[in-house]
Write a structure and sequence with these properties.
The chain has 5 helices and 6 strands. The protein has a 6-stranded mixed β-sheet, sandwiched between helices. The relative contact order is 0.22. It has one domain: 3-Layer(aba) Sandwich (Rossmann fold). It has 170 residues and is α/β, with parallel strands linked by helices. It starts with a strand and ends with a helix. The longest helix has 16 residues.
Amino acid sequence: MRTLLILRHAKSSWKHAGLSDHDRPLNRRGERDAPFMGQLLRSQRLSPGAIVSSTALRAQRTAEDVAQSSGFEGAVQLEGRLYLADAGTIVDVGREVDAETHRILVVGHNPGVEELVSRLTGQDERLPTAALAQIALPIDQWNELRLTTDGRLVNLWRPRALEDRRNADS
């Protein structure tokens, strides 16, 4: 059994008109949500064994903030193929993860991350920025991962819903 954590990058800024899409940074909300989702991983005892991120600046920063706040001790792996990748490409990247790693976090973009959740679980879920899906996969090695793998959506966290709940509890 393996666990795939799929994280859409946190909210990015559109303030800098001259920047390419690839180079857009996080905005204030994104800078708040990314470490919050890392803290969630830590509290759920889901710190990943590997983190693989798109090379887009907003995804890299999300991955770094999540890594730091989740207790992840390795280096974030940057993967150019994840920039605006479709579900099949994300699976290809996942298949290359070290066989000894049981839980990986992939940081990417829509629509690919939503498509991947749908293909692996049969559930169509909306993943707004910084949303995190936890999928249990009935595989023993990452190289067994396919788009047709019958995974189970264990949890789906959306920062806004978590924030609303936290504010209601206060």
